[in-house]
Each structure stands twice: as C-alpha cells, then as structure tokens.
C-alpha cells in the first residue's frame, strides 16, 4: 500500500534561513499516512467511530538527508509493506522537486481499543484492507 501527496513549503514552516524546521517532517509524515488511509477507504474517523480502533504513534525514526527550503515543492510518501499483527510499520519519506530525499524514516503505530484505550491486535477490517492493497 503506497500513497504520496505534493505540497509547497509554507513560510511558517521555515526558520530565519528559509529552511524547513525539523519538526515539520513529522507533520509531513502524518499528512501522508492519513491520506493513505483515506485513499484506501479507511479514514481516521471511520476507524475510530465505526471500527472502534485508535492508532497510537509509539515510535518515530527520522533521518534528515537534505534541507527543504522555502519555494520547494515536496512529496511526502507513506508505504505499508507488511500486514500488521500488533503494530503497523509505515515507511515514510519527503522528497523535493529535484528528487532529493529530505527525510526518510519509519513510524510505528499501535492499535488501541477506542473505548478502553487498551492495546489490541490489528482489527480484521484494517488487516483485510491492507492485505487487499499491498500491491498498490
């Protein structure tokens, strides 16, 4: 399962040197992850309200490779390469319009019961959807 979204660097995301502040890459990762789930037919609201599952970020690994700057158009990607059991591992990247990787990493999510906030295994509807979209 793969998704990408393009967007311009916005002024408020940069520092005085017109370089994207490092904290924004985590936001870019989230934008791509949420877009991936929505494009797959399981937006966050449906997961929470209809399936009863919350996605809790339990780990973020991010390696910074190249500075994104004001004026750049970035592409944030999210990819799931394995059917989750207890955790969902999402490979993520941010690339500029020249094809330079600005940041890459992995976000790990746990599944929580929306009523109790207790950890659960991946709900069957989520696992089935990911399995059906593995080659997308």
Topology of this structure?
Elements: E1 2-8, H1 24-39, H2 44-51, E2 53-64, E3 73-79, E4 87-95, E5 101-113, E6 119-120, H3 124-132
Antiparallel strand pairs: 1-3, 2-5, 3-4, 4-5, 5-6
Contiguous uncertain segments of 5+ residues: none
Order of helices and strands: EHHEEEEEH
- The rounded distance between the terminal residues' Cα atoms is 5 Å
Q: Label the CATH architecture.
A: Roll
The CATH superfamily name is: Hotdog Thioesterase
Give the overall silhouette: elongated
Helix residue percentage: 10-25%
Give the C-level CATH assignment.
Alpha Beta
Category by helix and strand content: alpha+beta
What's the gist of this structure?
This protein is α+β, with helices and mostly antiparallel strands and 136 residues long.
